[in-house]
Fold:
Amino acid sequence: MKILFATPECAPYVKTGGLGDVSAALPATLAALGHDVRILLPAYKGMNVSGELGDTVELPARGPWPAAQLVPVRIANGVTLLLLACPSLYQRAGGPYVDASGRDYADNALRFGLLARVAAQLGTTQTPCAGWQADVVNANDWPTALAPLYLAQARELAPREPVASSVLTIHNMAFQGVFPMYMADTLGVPPTWRGMDGVEFWGQLSMLKAGLQFADAITTVSPTYAREIRTEAFGVGLEGVLQTQAHKLHGILNGIDTQVWNSAQDKLIPHHFSAVDLTGKARNKAALQQRFGLARHGMVFGVVSRLTSQKGIDLVLGSLDALLASDGQLVVLGQGEPGLQTALQEAAAKHPRQVAVMVGFNEELAHLVEAGADCFLMPSRFEPCGLNQMYSQAYGTPPLVSGVGGLVDSVTDATRDPQHGTGFVMRSVDPQGYREALDRAVKAWRDPQRWRRIQANGMARHFGWEESAAQYVEVYAKARAAPAAAAA
Ligand code: ADP
Ligand code: GLC
Structure:
């Protein structure tokens, strides 16, 4: 199958969260299964890509978009990266979505409209890559979610020509790409599709809704989240659409890249270790404590996270006294909401021997925290999948998690199932639930034999991508067999 994976971020070139990891590992696994996979990604400023360069394709200016180029680069794992170069849209000082001061770029509708437009074009006979027309276009999150609409439009315009099937993968319902409706003209959304059954969301244009309406199939990154987003509590206003489209919605749990997140060969940690010999893990803990000037005793809790209300960092702060009172230490690596950053930094200043906070994005330190902490904290309010709880299980760092989304699907509670438990699942997502799980984790850690069993259970889990990639292929095949009728 010829698969186009359209995404706004892809590790190691550009990553703000789990989507970056998924965009690297899933296409590579699909390629290993024998598929012809290309990743469409904007060429942002400062990206360092190496591989075999193909012939650059010129994309003429079109509608509101300036001329652009597609630069094919064959990267190590047999996947071709199609870099979408349009300097005036993508070569900027900030991140992929926001400027240096954290504000959304004012022209994001155009920036990602172009990405979606080119993704769709690669699925039609008008493909800019000579001879390569995708069978399936897999769009990811709102920045590419107009692609299914553009493909539906191509089908309407030329019903006799082959057009790729479209799959939209939802990584997070909290980000929807909502813009003023007057952008519909600019983006070329047909007038008949601007209503409630099309892209309209409270009078505005929602890119995510467009994807939900027009994709032949929708996937999201865990079975539990696939159920949750059909409810008011998790659907962020789109639960009604998801209920209507439930027949084409599939929950497929993310995997992890077991080459990158492998404690026995991880290049970013000072000491390797495995389930049979955890000496290296103890050394990593010492290295972590030393790096931050923490006392060399106690139970180390780690956090690596975007600092947003999604991640429940306020719960960690709220029970910090209890954590510290039980000889615990807290190491946080993250960036995000200024209020949370400041609160964490104040805690670190107040307890320099017990709390360490590093504000920023640091791949190497993320690996050291996973490897060196005793317990990983992830009390998320919602979590489509979550990757860190899987990394931490693989690294012998039992996670404490809330009972939502992919956390439910990937962590087994050690109190409920002492035989197979791999972590601690909060019984409610509130201060009491967090505090109760924290107490259970501390108690378990004080019983070394029990703790080793929990660590071993987690390390024995298989979180590779093979099974999930096979499920994506099934969804692609289904979408090709029965393309959804256009929504409007
Ligand atoms: P989300 O995508 O919601 O942020 P995930 O758990 O799926 O959450 O993935 C987060 C990814 O981003 C992980 O690979 C994690 O290690 C990484 N990450 C998050 N914050 C940082 C940071 N400050 N420094 C380095 N890596 C980070
Ligand atoms: C999102 C979600 C996270 C998920 C990641 C990759 O950022 O918040 O739960 O793991 O996407 O799918």
Notes: Residues 149 and 214 are 5 Å apart (CA to CA). The chain has 18 helices and 19 strands. The pocket of alpha-D-glucopyranose (ligand 2) is lined by residues 17-19, 22, 171-172, 221, 254, 383-387, 406 (CB under 6 Å). The chain has a mean pLDDT of 97.
